[in-house]
Amino acid sequence: MVSSSAARRLASLLITAVSCAYTAITLVYFLQGAFYGVTAALSMTAVVATHYVNMRAGLRGTRPPLFPATLALQAMATYLPDFLLPGGMSALTAPMLAGSLLVLLPLRWGGPLVGLMMLSEGTRLWWGLAGAHVTFFYVATIATTGAMIYALVRFVRVTAELEQARAELAEAAVLKERLRISRDLHDGLGRSLTAIALKGDLAGRLIDRDPAAARHEVGELTQVAREAAQDVRQVARGYREMSLAGEVDRAVALLESSGVSAQAHLADVTLPERSEAALAWAVREGVTNVLRHSRATTCTITTSLQGGRVRLEVANDGAPATPGAANGGLTGLAERTAQAGGSCTTTPTGEGGFLLAVEVAA
Known about the structure:
Elements: H1 4-25, H2 34-59, H3 69-79, H4 90-104, H5 107-127, H6 132-209, H7 211-237, H8 244-257, E1 261-265, H9 273-293, E2 298-306, E3 309-316, H10 327-339, E4 343-348, E5 354-361
Parallel strand pairs: 1-2
Antiparallel strand pairs: 2-3, 3-5, 4-5
């Protein structure tokens, strides 16, 4: 796709070519005398100079610093020579003024003004006995040249806007990927790091009185560390295949090894991939919060089918030790659940416990 700088160079070249073409035609005034030739040359210089200032600003999507004075000066330079030169000169300069009007003014104003210019020029030429063909030609050039200049400037501006939009989309994609990695690392590695810390503490307490049990815990710690390394690789690749049943099995094992009595009751239902992944993440985040932020001694994980939706509940008997401690992870979980078309709620229970409930489409 054409870059905005290339589009601006192309438009500038074409607009300059048009200006040069009209300027060259004014040389015919020298055939009528030196005075007329010099007057025409000076008048065209003033038109081209103000036209350049106006177009330079228009191509950048702005207005000249002295606007609307520059537009008024171009209009004066366009029509004043009609009183000094035989036959007038606005037929050669009005097309450039039409371009400036369409570019710098709203179309609801610029369009009617260009129409008024065409009517004025046609009337002047017709009463000057220029002939129907000549009159039509010069009147048509006002519309065609003005429209061409306007189209070139719009082309440049649209190209610049598209270029900016692409840059913003690319930046948004990078930010989205960073958020995904951050969320996946938090949700995925949080459980693994919590398990590593718990098993490391347990192994340290058992190493003197029960070396065999300590070695077992160290072995499981090593396995959890390998799973964490695998999680990191999957996050880097952007691929996270989650299984609800597998995640529940790992959660129960982790809870039991951490001294929390755990039970799981899963409904026999086949879920869409996005729904299953959302529930699996919910189990991981819920159990991580139970281990990290609560004083729970029991935890129950259940799923049930209710009217075309599956409800997951992770309930424990210990509220968070520090109110709001788990909010960061639960916020990420709520966002992930919403992306799967579900909902996520957390409520304290009457027995001093805590309930995480997630619903997704079955």
